Amino acid sequence: MMRDGYVARWKGREYQASPDGDDIRLYQPEPGEGFEEVRAGRYVRVLPASEIEDLAYVRTTCTWKGQPFIVLGEHDAWLRVEYTGGRWPVAEAMRLEVFDFGVYQGWAPAAEVTDLREQRV
Length: 121
Hints:
It contains one helix and eleven strands, in the order ββββββββαβββ. By secondary structure, it is mainly beta. The longest helix is centred in the C-terminal third of the chain and has 6 residues, at 88-93.
């Protein structure tokens, strides 16, 4: 599973999370005590940040064609990647889409991606 977002540990379990001021929103796919359904298969519980054991931003990084990327998502045998090398000529040569100023993204065949790893930042 490719992850790119906040995670929080509460009572020894890790959840998808979202900081919200002095609170942390915890998400899980199944019902649980204190969790409210926000849509089908998505439950949230809001806790004070002081009750959270750990909060971190997790992202998946990789190398594609010798260049560094962040993995944003996956679909079938493809990975949605964002170039982190910061060099326009490289991004242009790789035919990456200009997503925003200095932000280049594309779809990489998963079989061509190496060095997949999760990092806490």
